[in-house]
Specification:
With about 70 residues, the chain is mostly helical. It contains 2 helices and no strands. It has a single domain, classed as DksA, coiled-coil domain (Four Helix Bundle (Hemerythrin (Met), subunit A)). The termini are far apart.
Length: about 70
């Protein structure tokens, strides 16, 4: 493997790690809300997050209609 290839692989691995860490933070945040009244409620618009969205993407803190770039 060339030096450039190794640098590229390292960058890809670091980005994957960042994404995994962010997902873990979101999952822990959602888990902490599991027993509260605001579990499954969008943080922005305060509407219910659809059940199917929670099943598919359990780390969701926003509904599909609210911009995801808030976090």
């Amino acid at each position: 493997m060339s030096r450039m290839g190794a640098i590229n692989n390292k960058s890809v691995a670091e980005e994957s790690l960042r994404q995994a860490e962010n997902k873990l933070k979101s999952l822990n945040r959602v888990l902490s809300k599991l027993d509260s009244d605001d579990f499954g409620i969008c943080l922005k618009c305060k509407n219910k997050i659809p059940y199917v969205r929670i099943l598919i993407r359990p780390q969701s803190l926003l509904c599909v209609n609210c911009p995801q770039y808030l976090f």
